[in-house]
Amino acid sequence: xxxxxxxxxxxxxxxxxxxxxxxxxxxxxxxxxxxxxxxxxxxxxxxxxxxxxxxxxxxxxxxxxxxxxxxxxxxxxxxxxxxxxxxxxxxxxxxxxxxxxxxxxxxxxxxxxxxxxxxxxxxxxxxxxxxxxxxxxxxxxxxxxxxxxxxxxxxxxxxxxxxxxxxxxxxxxxxxxxxxxxxxxxxxxxxxxxxxxxxxxxxxxxxxxxxxxxxxxxxxxxxxxxxxxx
Length: 230
Description:
This protein has 230 residues and is of the alpha+beta class. 23% of the residues lie in helices and 27% in strands. The chain is elongated, with a radius of gyration of 22 Å. It starts with 12 loop residues before the first helix and ends with a strand. Mean pLDDT is 82; it is low at 1-10.
């Protein structure tokens, strides 16, 4: 899960604040123009208007990048250890899966590719869409997934998962076995790398592709752990 605060409309609080700041800047720009409209010949007034206009443009660009290209997050739980650790700060690439159009289920622009097996993905938690979760995409539509004695079998073939850790000798919820299950159309199976301590698709079900928001791309802090996420 990501440490992201949402308002009652399911919008991240930092995005909501940025929108308010931009609207305030636009209002200020209009007030400045109206108040000083009779003093446009003054060099200081002209420069003030140019600075306000530039600020509005910069805020629009920053908001667009934040909403559709990149976003910063902090990891508050250990469900993705040792790939992602508690308090890791990372950049999420939202553009790679396409810029999601507001107020639509899954309409996207400029999509580079669909999510792929093995991707570490950020998504809205299906049971509470005010929260963001991060897990690894393990099963694609049509895949048959089964876990036996802590080993993952995909379509009957045992998988090599070097990123997985097992820190509970009793396994997930007291059992190391799960499935077999078939992944539904337009859905994904999402599992945590810390397989014994992860609330994931084994617990709350398969993830509809419409909840996907981006690719967990790069750890930028702490500095000692910086690097691309695999």
